Amino acid sequence: MNGTPAENKSSVEWSHNFYYRPGFIYPVATCHILIIAVAGVGNLLVLYTIVANRKLRRNPTNIFIFSLALSDLLTVTLVVPFEVEGLFLHWIWNHGEIMCRAWITLYLITVPVSILTLLAVSVDRYKILSDPTKRFRRCGLTTRKEGLTVSLIIWLYSSLIASLPVMGWRTSEKFVYNSCCYFPLVRLYFIISSVLNFILPILVTSGIYLRICLIVRSYHKKLGADNSKNMRSTAEKKMYLRNIQAAKTLAFLVVAFFCCWLLYSCVSLFSLVCGESCIVFIPPEVRTVLLMIGYLNSALNPLLLAFLDKKFRAALSCKNISNQDL
After folding, report:
1. DSSP for 240-271?
2. Which residues contact 255 (CB under 8 A, 6 or more apart)?
3. pLDDT (tens digit, 0 to 9) for every residue of the chain, 326 residues total?
4. Mapping DSSP to helix (H, G, I), strand (E, B) and coil, where does residue 182 land?
5. What is the 8-class DSSP label of residue 131?
6. Of 312, 231, 223, 300, whose CA–CA distance to 259 is shortest?
7. How far apart are CA 38 and CA 49, in angstroms?
8. Separation of alpha carbons 301 and 42, rounded Å
9. Cβ distance 172 to 7 under 8 Å?
10. Interatomic CA distance for residues 261 and 199, integer angstroms
11. CA-to-CA distance for 215 and 240, rounded, in angstroms?
């Protein structure tokens, strides 16, 4: 995605800024296509697995996983293909003003949905592990209805924030400038959006997982001391260990998101805060590759679920998981 151009930038300067050599275009375009293929198939399988399996569908955590997979699927099917086209056409936009606005708005929706969903899941895991006797279930995010409600709120919030530029909070009237589709974002909007939808959720999620690590460490100490007052039954121990494993799986999803999107987000924030004088020091090729790494996260999520979560692995392998406690 292109950054905001200066209003008086000439068409010659604009075209030059986004002209890539064939030696760069073809490898990067190939990587984009692979991401689309892997993420498309993987996230479709995750969505189908949750919808088709009653026990997976009943698990509130999987409501969030469904939301995450849907966000990733929309990204790779409706956002990334236009990136591939832009590489070959040197970012000449041939789809009109409405499509440009829709493309940018969808991009601004899906990334916050992903990170806020991961935050919601981390809160849910923390509540489960901090109170293994399930007293929290009376007020936590642990019922299917509450999971659906939280997911819906996340989508509505992200859609509202993403629609602000379309409703008028932008630097120019049109999104298409000199035949290029770009972000006419107000600097303040970009900073607020970055803080609320990326930096703050990542910090809070990291803090929650630090607390989870402390809880797990404390549990293992109690288990080693065979403290029957804390873990009274074998079934309770097994349930707690399953919750720990689920927390580990979700931690990998958080780390993957953080690693994939951190550099691009930092470069984008730096470019906007610093202004046009700093953008010239960041080659367009660097921004394109960093954004591609961000899109890679959509392909990694279903792979991590398949490799790390035995319930999804069993379901994807067409095994019977009806006897498993999900």
Report:
1. HHHHHHHHHHHHHHHHHHHHHHHHHHHHHHHH
2. none
3. 544 333 333 333 333 445 778 889 999 999 999 999 999 999 999 999 888 888 888 888 889 999 999 999 999 999 999 999 988 988 889 999 999 999 999 999 998 999 899 888 888 888 877 765 554 444 445 678 888 999 999 999 999 999 999 888 888 888 888 888 888 888 888 888 888 888 888 889 888 888 888 887 777 676 655 554 555 566 666 776 777 777 777 788 888 888 898 888 888 777 777 766 666 677 888 889 999 999 999 999 988 887 777 777 777 665 544 434 44
4. coil
5. -
6. 300
7. 16
8. 8
9. yes
10. 11
11. 11
Close Cβ partners of 6 (under 8 Å, ≥ 6 residues apart): 276
Number of helices followed by number of strands (H, E) in the chain: 13, 2
Place of tokens 């770009």: 182
Burial tier of 16 (Cβ tally within 10 Å: 0-12, 13-18, 19+):
exposed
Percent helix, strand and coil across the chain, each to the nearest 5 = 75, 0, 20
**Residue 206 burial class via C-beta count within 10 angstroms: exposed 0-12, middle 13-18, buried 19 and up:** middle
290 and 230 in contact (C-beta within 8 Å)? no
Query: Rounded to an integer, what distance in angstroms lies between the CA atom of residue 183 and that of residue 265?
Result: 14
Whether 117 and 71 have beta carbons less than 8 Å apart is answered as yes
Beta-carbon count within 10 A of 3 CB: 18
Total residues belonging to the chain: 326
What are the structure tokens assigned to 233, written together?
A: 């039954």
DSSP strands (E only) in 206-284: none
Burial 253-275 (b: 16+ CB within 10 A, else e): bbebbbebbbbbbebbbebbeee
CB 64 within 8 A of CB 147: yes
Single-letter code of the amino acid located at 195: V
Paired strand residues for 235? none
Residue 324, C-beta contacts closer than 8 angstroms, at least 6 positions apart: 55, 311, 314
Nearest Cα to 29, choosing from 292, 305, 261? 292
